[in-house]
Design a protein that fits this description.
This protein is mainly α. It contains six helices and two strands, in the order E-H-H-H-E-H-H-H. It has a two-stranded antiparallel ribbon. 26% of the residues are buried. The mean pLDDT is 82.
Length: 125
């Protein structure tokens, strides 16, 4: 699999950030963002704050080659851009800096590998 739907990419980003936050709970306002963007909160898959999904879609459409899907190797960069868009209402500088370091040290294939493994352990929609 080389592409994800925007909805599935959103869930992958949420899950990655949630795992990251569980290890670094003292960082910035990531917990607040996760509460707002949680796609597993309601049965229909909608988050508590629907504007966070719109922000994500806007980022994907501005970056993604296909505009309707996310290539696996684009996902990590999209996640960083998404977090940067949230800076006007959240303190996320520390996590963004750390994720940029992680991004510079890993290949896009590592994100694709993580996402592929995650897909094997979750419902797709």
């Amino acid at each position: 699999m080389s592409n994800l739907s925007i909805g599935l990419a959103y869930k992958a980003v949420f899950t990655y950030l949630k795992h990251y936050w569980q290890q670094h709970q003292d960082e910035d306002d990531l917990g607040g963002l996760l509460n707002a963007m949680d796609p597993f909160l309601w049965k229909d898959g909608s988050p508590a704050d629907k504007t966070v999904v719109k922000d994500f879609i806007d980022i994907v459409k501005g970056i993604s080659i296909s505009k309707d899907e996310v290539e696996l190797n684009e996902g990590f960069g999209i996640m960083i851009n998404y977090l940067e868009k949230q800076l006007d209402w959240l303190r996320l500088e520390t996590i963004i800096d750390r994720l940029k370091i992680i991004y510079s040290e890993q290949s896009p294939e590592e994100w694709a590998y993580w996402t592929t493994n995650w897909l094997q352990t979750t419902d797709r929609d």
